[in-house]
Amino acid sequence: MFFHKHPYKPFIQPDTEKLMVGTLPPPRFSMGELLEKDVNFCYGSYYNSLWLFIDKIYNLKLRYDNSQEAIDQRKEFFIQHKIGVCDIVDSCERQKIDASDLGMENIQLRNLIGYLQQYPSIHTILFIGGNSKNGPEYFFRKHIKRYNLKLEVVSNTVPRIHQFDLNLVENKYNSEFALSGVEMQSRWIKTVSLTSSSGAANRAIGSIPLYKKHKKENPKFTTFDFRVLQYKEFF
User: Fold this and answer.
1) What's the mean pLDDT in 210-223?
2) Is residue 169's pLDDT more than 60?
3) What is the DSSP code (8-state) at residue 82?
4) 158 half-sphere exposure, CB direction, 13 A CA radius
5) What domain count does the chain have?
6) Residues 43/99, Cβ–Cβ less than 8 Å
7) What is the pLDDT of residue 172?
8) Alpha helical stretches, state H, 95-187
9) Residue 51: enclosing H or E segment and its boundaries?
10) How far apart are the two ends of the chain, measured CA to CA in Å?
């Protein structure tokens, strides 16, 4: 059994407004066995295209290697655009050493609600993947049940958008407000379930009506182009 521990702490600044949430990077990042074109940072896998999408949108001319410069370029982008990263899985066990979300067992989740409470500027969660089993939204839904919260549908078309009121969390702080007769103000958090940046999502994209529409209008339109358009709206 392989113990898969997340290699990176959450990357969040005091003024972070949007929080990217995935699951775990491939095991080689925890084992220190990076490929030549991997970047030793969040979403740094050579086989994960997220930074390629961002690079295309902003023309950042990023490096794709093991250098410190490549890491610093990505950190600078996040800080400049007030984006943070806090993957929801802290650790898991695997029978097989691979990056499959379905292969995760004995999963330990990070306390995302606690991070949202700690950083009051955050107003949007960007799930890098949807609500399929062991995906980031799937785990987040399980996580917020502990706090008697649930996601409300805002838009049910891809990318699906939900919201929830963080200040409905049942805790001592809220109880004191209720006893004092002071009305709690809402703090609405929006969640956006972006299409996964991994290559495994390409087949699913092919069945999305919007992708089909673009493909019909332009036969050269690709799954990469589709995600660039989608991510551009929220990044």
Assistant:
1) 94
2) yes
3) T
4) 21
5) 1
6) no
7) 44
8) 112-118, 136-145, 172-180
9) helix 50-58
10) 38
